[in-house]
């Protein structure tokens, strides 16, 4: 029951599902491959990625959040177990959907796990993730379209602005 509270706390599920759908529709629209199975595949992967990022952040900040008396729905060990389940699902689905190209999901996971040490990783994560899934959905020729590059640059600016906003509050 606590997992359900954790997943849905502070409208997380609604926010993450909305963002996952936006990125799924963006990628399928840019690759002109708008089909329900493609949208659902990307939606699930982006949703899992959002929860991986959230869980990694919660594990990293667990002690600090306890000192601030923030509400915890799961213990640190439960968060670690949940992270293992989500990561395994994410990896399995990437390999199921994209065959050997699913290995690139390891790169995305590595970036998430090291970005507390290297803050630049937070800035490049969104455009890199979209570039990887654009490649999977549309192939190499996708990057010959100028619209793709414009979107990737916009995503980079959004990432930089969000990072600057988050760092400004600390």
Structure explained in plain terms:
The protein is mostly helical. It is 78% helix and 0% strand. The protein has 8 helices and no strands. The chain has helices spanning 2-8, 12-30, 36-60, 62-67, 76-98, 104-114, 120-138, 146-168. Helix 7 packs antiparallel against helix 8. The radius of gyration is 17 Å and the shape is globular. It starts with a helix and ends with a helix. 18% of the residues are buried. The model has no long low-confidence stretch (mean pLDDT 91).
Our estimate of the beta-strand percent is under 5%
Biggest sheet, open or closed, and with what strands and sense?
none
Provide the gyration radius in Å: 17 Å
Mean pLDDT: 91
Q: Give the distance, in angstroms, between the N- and C-terminal Cα atoms.
A: 33 Å
Helix content: over 70%
DSSP, total strands: 0
**Unreliable segments (pLDDT under 50, ≥5 consecutive)?**
none
Structural class comes to mainly alpha
Shape: globular
Order of helices and strands: HHHHHHHH
DSSP helical segment count: 8
List keywords for this structure.
170 residues; mainly alpha; 8 helices; 78% helix
């Amino acid at each position: 029951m606590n997992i359900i509270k954790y997943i849905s706390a502070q409208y997380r599920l609604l926010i993450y599902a909305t963002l996952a759908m936006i990125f799924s529709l963006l990628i399928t629209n840019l690759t002109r491959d708008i089909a329900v199975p493609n949208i659902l595949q990307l939606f699930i992967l982006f949703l899992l990625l959002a929860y991986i990022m959230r869980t990694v952040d919660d594990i990293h900040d667990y002690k600090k959040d306890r000192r601030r008396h923030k509400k915890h729905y799961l213990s640190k060990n439960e968060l670690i177990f949940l992270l293992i389940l989500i990561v395994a699902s994410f990896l399995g689905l990437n390999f199921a959907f994209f065959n050997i190209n699913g290995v690139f999901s390891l790169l995305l996971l590595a970036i998430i796990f090291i970005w507390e040490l290297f803050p630049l990783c937070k800035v490049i994560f969104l455009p890199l993730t979209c570039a990887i899934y654009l490649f999977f959905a549309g192939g190499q020729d996708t990057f010959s379209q100028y619209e793709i590059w414009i979107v990737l640059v916009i995503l980079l600016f959004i990432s930089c602005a969000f990072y600057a906003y988050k760092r400004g509050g600390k």
